[in-house]
Amino acid sequence: MIRKVLSFLPFLAVAGLALFWWLTVPGRIDSARLGGLAGDPARGEQVFWAAGCASCHAAPESQGEARMVLAGGMAFPSPFGTFYAPNISPDPDRGIGGWTVADLANAMLHGTSPEGAHYYPAFPYTSYARAELQDIADLHAFLATLPASETTSRAHDVSFPFNIRRSLGGWKLLFSRPAWVTEATSPEITRGRYLVEALGHCGECHTPRNTLGGLDYTRWLQGAPTADGKGRTPAITPDKLDWSANDIAAYLATGFTPEYDVAGGHMTEVVQNLAHLPETDLKAIAAYLKTLPGGG
Protein backbone atom coordinates (compact mmCIF):
# COMPACT_ATOMS: atom_id res chain seq x y z
CA MET A 1 0.00 0.00 0.00
CA ILE A 2 2.77 2.42 0.96
CA ARG A 3 4.66 1.52 -2.21
CA LYS A 4 1.55 2.25 -4.29
CA VAL A 5 1.10 5.64 -2.62
CA LEU A 6 4.76 6.48 -3.15
CA SER A 7 4.46 5.61 -6.83
CA PHE A 8 1.86 8.37 -7.18
CA LEU A 9 4.01 11.04 -5.57
CA PRO A 10 5.92 12.01 -8.73
CA PHE A 11 2.62 12.35 -10.59
CA LEU A 12 1.13 14.49 -7.83
CA ALA A 13 4.24 16.66 -7.77
CA VAL A 14 4.11 17.24 -11.52
CA ALA A 15 0.36 17.91 -11.40
CA GLY A 16 0.81 20.35 -8.54
CA LEU A 17 3.58 22.17 -10.37
CA ALA A 18 1.47 22.35 -13.54
CA LEU A 19 -1.47 23.75 -11.57
CA PHE A 20 0.76 26.33 -9.90
CA TRP A 21 2.21 27.33 -13.28
CA TRP A 22 -1.25 27.69 -14.79
CA LEU A 23 -2.66 29.72 -11.88
CA THR A 24 0.30 32.10 -11.80
CA VAL A 25 0.47 32.97 -15.50
CA PRO A 26 1.04 36.75 -15.80
CA GLY A 27 -2.09 38.49 -17.04
CA ARG A 28 -2.22 40.37 -20.32
CA ILE A 29 -4.77 42.67 -21.87
CA ASP A 30 -6.81 41.57 -24.87
CA SER A 31 -5.24 43.59 -27.69
CA ALA A 32 -8.68 44.02 -29.25
CA ARG A 33 -9.59 46.36 -26.38
CA LEU A 34 -6.92 48.79 -27.58
CA GLY A 35 -8.25 49.05 -31.12
CA GLY A 36 -8.91 52.62 -32.19
CA LEU A 37 -7.30 54.22 -29.13
CA ALA A 38 -5.18 57.27 -29.90
CA GLY A 39 -3.16 58.86 -27.14
CA ASP A 40 -3.37 62.60 -26.48
CA PRO A 41 -0.22 63.91 -24.73
CA ALA A 42 -2.03 66.98 -23.34
CA ARG A 43 -4.57 64.80 -21.58
CA GLY A 44 -1.77 62.41 -20.71
CA GLU A 45 0.00 65.11 -18.74
CA GLN A 46 -3.00 65.35 -16.43
CA VAL A 47 -2.91 61.58 -15.97
CA PHE A 48 0.82 61.83 -15.25
CA TRP A 49 0.27 64.28 -12.39
CA ALA A 50 -2.74 62.45 -11.01
CA ALA A 51 -0.81 59.17 -10.98
CA GLY A 52 2.24 60.71 -9.30
CA CYS A 53 4.75 59.23 -11.77
CA ALA A 54 7.52 61.74 -10.99
CA SER A 55 7.24 61.16 -7.24
CA CYS A 56 8.69 57.67 -7.64
CA HIS A 57 10.53 57.68 -10.95
CA ALA A 58 12.41 60.98 -10.89
CA ALA A 59 15.98 60.63 -9.68
CA PRO A 60 16.26 61.02 -5.88
CA GLU A 61 16.47 64.66 -4.73
CA SER A 62 15.96 66.03 -8.24
CA GLN A 63 14.26 69.42 -8.44
CA GLY A 64 12.48 71.57 -11.01
CA GLU A 65 12.69 70.42 -14.62
CA ALA A 66 15.03 67.60 -13.60
CA ARG A 67 12.00 65.86 -12.08
CA MET A 68 10.70 65.30 -15.58
CA VAL A 69 13.67 63.04 -16.35
CA LEU A 70 12.27 59.75 -15.11
CA ALA A 71 15.62 58.03 -14.61
CA GLY A 72 14.46 56.08 -11.54
CA GLY A 73 16.63 55.03 -8.62
CA MET A 74 14.46 55.92 -5.64
CA ALA A 75 14.62 53.24 -2.93
CA PHE A 76 11.53 51.76 -1.30
CA PRO A 77 12.45 49.73 1.81
CA SER A 78 9.90 47.14 2.93
CA PRO A 79 9.69 43.99 5.07
CA PHE A 80 10.25 41.98 1.89
CA GLY A 81 13.38 43.78 0.68
CA THR A 82 14.30 47.08 -0.92
CA PHE A 83 12.78 47.95 -4.27
CA TYR A 84 14.16 50.57 -6.65
CA ALA A 85 12.09 52.60 -9.08
CA PRO A 86 13.13 51.82 -12.66
CA ASN A 87 13.97 54.15 -15.50
CA ILE A 88 10.70 54.89 -17.33
CA SER A 89 12.06 57.65 -19.55
CA PRO A 90 11.67 57.35 -23.36
CA ASP A 91 15.19 55.92 -23.77
CA PRO A 92 14.66 52.89 -26.04
CA ASP A 93 17.30 50.73 -24.37
CA ARG A 94 17.33 51.59 -20.67
CA GLY A 95 13.89 53.17 -20.37
CA ILE A 96 10.51 52.35 -21.88
CA GLY A 97 10.92 54.11 -25.21
CA GLY A 98 10.26 50.85 -27.00
CA TRP A 99 7.04 50.11 -25.18
CA THR A 100 3.69 50.05 -26.94
CA VAL A 101 0.41 51.18 -25.40
CA ALA A 102 -0.32 47.49 -24.79
CA ASP A 103 2.95 47.14 -22.86
CA LEU A 104 2.04 50.05 -20.61
CA ALA A 105 -1.49 48.72 -20.18
CA ASN A 106 -0.18 45.29 -19.21
CA ALA A 107 2.14 46.88 -16.64
CA MET A 108 -0.50 49.12 -15.10
CA LEU A 109 -3.53 46.83 -15.24
CA HIS A 110 -1.88 43.45 -14.65
CA GLY A 111 1.59 44.12 -13.24
CA THR A 112 3.11 42.27 -16.19
CA SER A 113 6.32 43.26 -17.99
CA PRO A 114 6.71 43.24 -21.79
CA GLU A 115 8.77 40.06 -21.33
CA GLY A 116 5.88 38.38 -19.54
CA ALA A 117 7.20 38.52 -15.96
CA HIS A 118 5.35 39.65 -12.85
CA TYR A 119 6.19 43.07 -11.43
CA TYR A 120 6.51 43.48 -7.69
CA PRO A 121 3.57 45.35 -6.15
CA ALA A 122 5.88 48.14 -5.00
CA PHE A 123 4.63 49.37 -8.38
CA PRO A 124 0.99 50.09 -7.43
CA TYR A 125 -0.70 48.14 -10.19
CA THR A 126 -3.29 46.86 -7.73
CA SER A 127 -4.65 50.42 -7.82
CA TYR A 128 -3.82 51.24 -11.44
CA ALA A 129 -5.83 48.13 -12.38
CA ARG A 130 -8.89 50.40 -12.16
CA ALA A 131 -7.48 52.90 -14.69
CA GLU A 132 -9.27 53.60 -17.95
CA LEU A 133 -7.59 52.46 -21.17
CA GLN A 134 -7.91 55.90 -22.73
CA ASP A 135 -6.00 57.40 -19.81
CA ILE A 136 -3.27 54.80 -20.25
CA ALA A 137 -3.01 55.59 -23.96
CA ASP A 138 -2.85 59.32 -23.16
CA LEU A 139 -0.18 58.74 -20.51
CA HIS A 140 1.86 56.70 -22.99
CA ALA A 141 1.72 59.60 -25.45
CA PHE A 142 2.83 62.10 -22.79
CA LEU A 143 5.70 59.95 -21.49
CA ALA A 144 7.10 59.84 -25.02
CA THR A 145 7.51 63.64 -24.93
CA LEU A 146 9.76 63.65 -21.84
CA PRO A 147 13.58 63.71 -21.85
CA ALA A 148 15.32 60.37 -22.24
CA SER A 149 17.84 59.06 -19.71
CA GLU A 150 20.51 56.41 -20.28
CA THR A 151 20.59 55.50 -16.58
CA THR A 152 20.46 51.75 -16.00
CA SER A 153 17.67 50.64 -13.67
CA ARG A 154 18.96 49.28 -10.39
CA ALA A 155 18.12 45.69 -9.49
CA HIS A 156 15.87 45.15 -6.48
CA ASP A 157 17.46 43.89 -3.29
CA VAL A 158 15.11 41.01 -2.54
CA SER A 159 16.14 37.68 -1.05
CA PHE A 160 14.63 34.17 -1.22
CA PRO A 161 11.75 33.34 -1.38
CA PHE A 162 10.52 36.79 -2.43
CA ASN A 163 12.87 36.83 -5.41
CA ILE A 164 10.80 34.09 -7.08
CA ARG A 165 8.73 36.31 -9.33
CA ARG A 166 6.43 33.53 -10.47
CA SER A 167 5.08 33.30 -6.93
CA LEU A 168 3.70 36.83 -7.39
CA GLY A 169 1.01 35.26 -9.53
CA GLY A 170 -0.31 33.61 -6.37
CA TRP A 171 -0.06 36.91 -4.51
CA LYS A 172 -2.13 38.57 -7.22
CA LEU A 173 -4.78 35.85 -7.01
CA LEU A 174 -5.10 36.55 -3.29
CA PHE A 175 -4.85 40.33 -3.17
CA SER A 176 -5.44 41.92 -6.58
CA ARG A 177 -8.90 43.52 -6.51
CA PRO A 178 -9.74 45.63 -9.57
CA ALA A 179 -13.31 46.26 -8.36
CA TRP A 180 -14.09 49.62 -6.78
CA VAL A 181 -13.73 49.77 -3.02
CA THR A 182 -16.69 52.09 -2.46
CA GLU A 183 -19.97 53.03 -4.07
CA ALA A 184 -20.31 56.36 -5.89
CA THR A 185 -23.54 58.35 -5.74
CA SER A 186 -22.87 61.29 -8.07
CA PRO A 187 -20.66 62.23 -11.03
CA GLU A 188 -18.41 64.30 -8.75
CA ILE A 189 -17.90 61.46 -6.28
CA THR A 190 -17.36 59.03 -9.17
CA ARG A 191 -14.55 61.26 -10.41
CA GLY A 192 -13.11 61.57 -6.91
CA ARG A 193 -13.23 57.81 -6.46
CA TYR A 194 -11.36 57.33 -9.72
CA LEU A 195 -8.64 59.76 -8.68
CA VAL A 196 -8.29 58.29 -5.17
CA GLU A 197 -8.77 54.56 -5.76
CA ALA A 198 -7.16 54.29 -9.21
CA LEU A 199 -4.78 56.95 -10.51
CA GLY A 200 -3.85 58.53 -7.18
CA HIS A 201 -3.40 55.10 -5.51
CA CYS A 202 -3.98 56.73 -2.11
CA GLY A 203 -4.80 53.40 -0.50
CA GLU A 204 -1.27 52.10 -1.11
CA CYS A 205 0.00 54.31 1.73
CA HIS A 206 -3.09 55.16 3.77
CA THR A 207 -4.54 51.63 4.12
CA PRO A 208 -3.11 48.93 6.45
CA ARG A 209 -1.66 45.75 4.97
CA ASN A 210 -1.69 42.13 6.09
CA THR A 211 1.42 40.07 6.77
CA LEU A 212 1.81 39.24 3.07
CA GLY A 213 1.57 42.86 1.96
CA GLY A 214 -2.00 42.82 0.68
CA LEU A 215 -4.23 45.81 1.40
CA ASP A 216 -6.81 45.34 4.16
CA TYR A 217 -9.84 46.80 2.41
CA THR A 218 -11.94 46.49 5.58
CA ARG A 219 -9.82 49.36 6.95
CA TRP A 220 -9.77 51.46 3.79
CA LEU A 221 -7.78 54.70 4.21
CA GLN A 222 -7.71 54.32 7.99
CA GLY A 223 -3.97 54.95 8.30
CA ALA A 224 -1.04 52.54 8.24
CA PRO A 225 2.60 52.09 9.23
CA THR A 226 5.02 53.27 6.55
CA ALA A 227 6.64 50.52 4.51
CA ASP A 228 10.03 51.10 6.15
CA GLY A 229 8.49 50.76 9.62
CA LYS A 230 9.80 54.16 10.73
CA GLY A 231 6.59 56.14 10.76
CA ARG A 232 2.88 56.11 10.14
CA THR A 233 0.67 57.44 7.35
CA PRO A 234 -2.40 59.11 8.85
CA ALA A 235 -6.02 58.12 8.46
CA ILE A 236 -7.98 60.25 5.99
CA THR A 237 -11.46 58.98 6.88
CA PRO A 238 -13.92 61.62 8.13
CA ASP A 239 -13.72 60.49 11.78
CA LYS A 240 -9.99 61.26 11.83
CA LEU A 241 -9.75 64.03 9.23
CA ASP A 242 -12.45 66.49 10.26
CA TRP A 243 -11.59 69.21 7.73
CA SER A 244 -14.31 70.54 5.47
CA ALA A 245 -14.33 69.54 1.80
CA ASN A 246 -13.09 73.03 0.92
CA ASP A 247 -10.24 72.70 3.42
CA ILE A 248 -9.19 69.37 1.88
CA ALA A 249 -9.26 70.74 -1.67
CA ALA A 250 -7.24 73.79 -0.61
CA TYR A 251 -4.67 71.60 1.14
CA LEU A 252 -4.24 69.46 -1.97
CA ALA A 253 -3.68 72.58 -4.07
CA THR A 254 -1.35 74.49 -1.72
CA GLY A 255 -0.04 72.17 0.99
CA PHE A 256 -1.41 74.46 3.73
CA THR A 257 -3.64 72.96 6.40
CA PRO A 258 -6.57 74.85 7.95
CA GLU A 259 -4.26 75.43 10.95
CA TYR A 260 -1.67 77.08 8.65
CA ASP A 261 0.72 74.18 8.98
CA VAL A 262 2.30 72.78 5.80
CA ALA A 263 2.45 69.35 4.20
CA GLY A 264 5.52 67.33 5.09
CA GLY A 265 7.17 64.07 4.14
CA HIS A 266 5.85 62.28 1.10
CA MET A 267 2.73 64.48 1.04
CA THR A 268 4.96 67.29 -0.20
CA GLU A 269 5.40 65.31 -3.42
CA VAL A 270 1.71 64.49 -3.59
CA VAL A 271 0.74 68.16 -3.32
CA GLN A 272 3.29 69.09 -6.01
CA ASN A 273 1.55 66.63 -8.31
CA LEU A 274 -2.06 67.41 -7.46
CA ALA A 275 -1.49 71.16 -7.75
CA HIS A 276 -1.35 70.60 -11.53
CA LEU A 277 -4.92 69.25 -11.60
CA PRO A 278 -7.98 71.45 -12.14
CA GLU A 279 -9.86 72.65 -9.08
CA THR A 280 -12.81 70.47 -10.03
CA ASP A 281 -10.65 67.37 -9.59
CA LEU A 282 -9.40 68.46 -6.17
CA LYS A 283 -12.97 69.17 -5.07
CA ALA A 284 -13.99 65.74 -6.38
CA ILE A 285 -11.27 64.08 -4.27
CA ALA A 286 -12.47 66.01 -1.22
CA ALA A 287 -16.11 65.09 -1.89
CA TYR A 288 -15.16 61.42 -2.17
CA LEU A 289 -13.21 61.44 1.10
CA LYS A 290 -16.15 63.02 2.93
CA THR A 291 -18.37 60.08 1.89
CA LEU A 292 -16.18 57.44 3.52
CA PRO A 293 -17.34 55.63 6.64
CA GLY A 294 -15.41 56.38 9.81
CA GLY A 295 -12.73 54.02 11.00
CA GLY A 296 -12.89 51.92 14.10
UniProtKB/TrEMBL annotation:
InterPro entries: Cyt_c-like_dom (IPR009056), Cyt_c-like_dom_sf (IPR036909), Cytochrome_c-type_DH (IPR051459). Residues 39-147, 187-293 form the Cytochrome c domain. One of its GO terms (molecular function) is heme binding. Keywords: Heme, Iron, Metal-binding. SUPFAM superfamilies: Cytochrome c. It comes from the Bacteria. Pfam families: Cytochrom_C. The keyword Glycoprotein does not apply. The keyword RNA-binding does not apply. This is C-type cytochrome. It comes from Marimonas arenosa.
